[in-house]
Design a protein that fits this description.
This protein is mainly alpha-helical and about 170 residues long. The chain has helices at about 10-30, 45-60, 65-85, 85-95, 105-115, 120-130, 140-145.
Length: about 170
């Protein structure tokens, strides 16, 4: 089957239509929902993945961050579980021990996590998150971190005195 090439006029029409649609969405305040992504787990079940996501969110709570950043940690833990049967058993048993997790209030969930803070399950999740969550370059701008500076000469001339988050004082 022979494909027809698009004419210049069709390309311009398509571009105008796309720009008009984007303008309409932004002016009307229509936003693509946060849940337009999918949590991908291969070893854990989707229900276990969602439960683990809520556990991760409570371990390192950042209310202004979307679930997508926490999903990277869940996917990392899922990958660790697929490569090691002991890790998989630890995560699955840890999630099963969180009885009625979905029905608990966030305050009650936090109390449950405080009780199991020294357990191998909690320590595995927390330890993985330190790397998979905070070492994610996509999260850095959300915290105001510009990334490593060694390749740009260090922090002395790049960001050392960038403290715009502190209140300014009048100098005499």
């Amino acid at each position: 089957m022979k494909q027809q090439a698009m004419s210049r006029r069709q390309i311009i029409k398509l571009g105008l239509l796309s720009a008009t649609t984007a303008l309409a969405y932004s002016s009307l305040g229509i936003v693509v929902p946060d849940k337009s992504w999918a949590l991908t787990v291969n070893t854990l079940s989707p229900t276990q993945g969602e439960k683990l996501l809520s556990v991760c969110r409570l371990i390192y709570p950042h209310p202004n961050l979307a679930d997508t950043f926490y999903a990277a940690s869940v996917e990392s833990l899922d990958g660790a579980a697929s490569g090691n049967p002991q890790t998989r058993a630890l995560i699955v048993e840890g999630l099963e021990s969180l009885n009625d997790w979905e029905t608990l209030s966030p305050k009650q969930q936090l109390a449950v996590l405080e009780k199991i803070a020294s357990s191998p399950f909690f320590q595995t999740v927390r330890g993985n998150m330190v790397v998979s969550f905070y070492d994610n370059p996509k999260v850095w701008p959300k915290f105001g971190y510009q990334g490593p500076s060694y390749a740009k000469g260090g922090y002395l001339f790049r960001g050392f005195d960038d403290i715009d988050w502190l209140p300014t004082t009048a100098k005499e």
